[in-house]
Amino acid sequence: MDKDAKNRLIEAAMPLFPAKGYAGVSIREIAEAAHVNSAAISYYFGGKEGLYEAVLDVLFSQIDDAIHTIDVLQEKPQEFIRHFAMMVLNIHMHNPYIMLYLYQELSHPSPYLEQIIQKHIRKAFNTIHIAISKGISAGIFKKDINIEHAVMSLAGIINFYFFMTPVRKIVLKNYDDNEKEYVQQAISIFLNGIRRDCDEKKHT
Amino acid sequence: MDKDAKNRLIEAAMPLFPAKGYAGVSIREIAEAAHVNSAAISYYFGGKEGLYEAVLDVLFSQIDDAIHTIDVLQEKPQEFIRHFAMMVLNIHMHNPYIMLYLYQELSHPSPYLEQIIQKHIRKAFNTIHIAISKGISAGIFKKDINIEHAVMSLAGIINFYFFMTPVRKIVLKNYDDNEKEYVQQAISIFLNGIRRDCDEKKHT
DNA sequence: GTCTATATTGCGATAGAC
DNA sequence: GTCTATCGCAATATAGAC
Question: Does the CB of A140 have a partner CB in chain B at under 8 Å?
Fold first, then answer.
C-alpha cells in the first residue's frame, strides 16, 4: 500500500500539528494515528519536516481550487465579494485546519511560508483588490478609500470570526454556531461601509 | 537579585514561546537569553509551564489596564468605538506579543485559556456589546443587526490586520506600515456599515 | 515496503555544593 | 539565591532483518 500509507500519514498529521504545535507532536504519535510504522515517515517524506510540508501543500492547494470556481471579471463587484465570502465560509466549514496552519505559520514561519503566500494567498488578495477597484471605477464604492486596506478589512471581518470560535463558545451565552448568518451580515456591513452614496458625517 | 531574575525570565521567554511554539523552546534557551541559570526556572516558577503561565498573565493584564482608560457609559457609541479601536491599535503597537499568544492559545489551548478569556477578553466583548446596544437604542445603528456578530466583525476588522503583518509585508508592493490610517478607515467602514440611515438595497 | 531495534541527541527537573 | 552535575526520559532518524 504505497499511496495509501502516504495519504494516511498526511491525514493523521493534519489535526495533530496545530493541536500541539510542530515540536509538540512526535512522529511516533502521528504514525500511530495513521496506523503505520514510525519509520515510514522518514521513508516517504524524508523526516518530520517533510511531512509537515506535505500537509501544508495539500491544505493550501484547496484555496486555489476554490478561487478558480468564481471569476472576478464576470460579476458585479458586490456580487463577487458576496460569492468570495461564501467560498471562504465553505472552506472554513469543510476544512478548519487551513486557518490553524496559517496562524501557526504566521507566529513562527517555516521556510515554506513565503512560498505559500506567493502561490496561494497573493492570488486571493489580488482578486479582491480587482473587485474593489472595479467597484470604485463604476462609482459604486467610495473613491477615496485605500484599496489595500479595504482588502485587509474584508479578509479580517470574515476570517477572524472563524479563528475566534473557541472564544465565542466561552463568551457567548447562546452559542448557536450560525456561521452563514454571520458572514452575510459581515459582508453587508462591509459593502455598506464602502458604498459611495453612504457617506458618514465627519466627526472632527 | 530576586525580582530581577524573575522579570528577566518573563521578558526573555515572551518572544521565544510564540516564535518556536511552547514545545519548541527549551528552558536552557530561555535561561541563556535571560542570563540566568536554567535551574532558576524551576526555582521561581516551578517549571517551564509555570513560566509560560506567568508570561500569559503579564501580557493579558495589559488589556484590562487599557480598557479601564475609557468608559463606555460616558461617550457616544461611535466615539467610544473609535476610542476603543485606537486603544487596540496602541496595544498592538506597544506589544505585538499579545496577539501571538492569543493565536497560539486558540490553536492549542493551554489550561489557562478559559481563565484568560473570562478574566480579560469577556470584558472587552461586553463593553463593545453595550456600545452597540446603546447605538441601536439611540437610533444611530440599524436595529435588525445581530449584536454579537457585529462585535465579532469589529474585532475582526481591527485585529486581523495586525496578525497578517507578515503576509502584508510580502503581498503589498509599497509596504508602508500605516497602521493608524488602517484602523481609522476600518472603523469608518464598520460604523458606516451598521448606520441606520444607510440601508443597502437588497440584491437577489 | 514494512518492521524491530537501536544509536544519538536533547529535553525538563532536581539534588546538593556554595 | 545561584550554580554544576546528572538522572531519567522521550525525541528523531536510521541500520538492517524480513
Answer: no
Nucleotide D3's nearest residue (CA vs C1') is: B37
Handedness of CA A106, A118, A128, A97 (dihedral sign): negative
Kindly list the distances between the CA atom of residue A3 and the CA atoms of A6, A10, A178, B10, B22, in Å, as whole numbers in the listed order.
5, 11, 38, 46, 33
Mark the nucleotides of strand C covered by protein, meaning any atom under 7 Å from a CB.
Answer: 1-5, 10-16
Reported residue count of chain A is 204
Q: How far apart are CA A91 and CA B203, in angstroms?
A: 24
Contacts of B112 (CB under 8 A, 6+ apart): B53, B56, B105
The percent of residues in chain B predicted with pLDDT above 70, rounded, is 95
Any alpha helices (H) in chain B, and if so which ranges? 2-20, 27-34, 39-45, 48-67, 77-94, 97-107, 113-116, 122-137, 147-163, 165-171, 179-194
Q: Is A145 on the interface with B (CB under 8 A)?
A: yes
3-state secondary structure (DSSP) of residue B153:
helix
Contact assignment for A108 to B168 by CB distance below 8 Å: no
Reported as a single tens digit per residue, the pLDDT across A51-63 is: 999 999 999 999 8
Distance, in Å, from the CA atom of A87 to the CA atom of B125, rounded to the nearest integer, reads 28
Instruction: State how far the Cα of B104 lies from the Cα of B55, in Å rounded to an integer.
Output: 13
| Cell numbers for A8 | 494516511
- The answer to whether A118 and B170 are in contact (CB under 8 A) is yes
Q: How confident is the model at residue A194 (pLDDT cuts 50, 70, 90)?
A: very high
End-to-end CA distance of chain A: 69
Res B27 pLDDT > 50: yes
Q: Inform me whether the pLDDT recorded for A199 exceeds 80.
A: no
| B91-141 residue pLDDT tens | 999 999 999 999 899 888 898 999 999 989 999 999 999 999 999 999 999
Q: Which three cell numbers stand for residue A28?
A: 511516533
A23 touches strand C (CB under 7 A): no
CA separation for the pair B105, A100 (Å, rounded): 11
Q: What is the pTM of this model?
A: 0.92
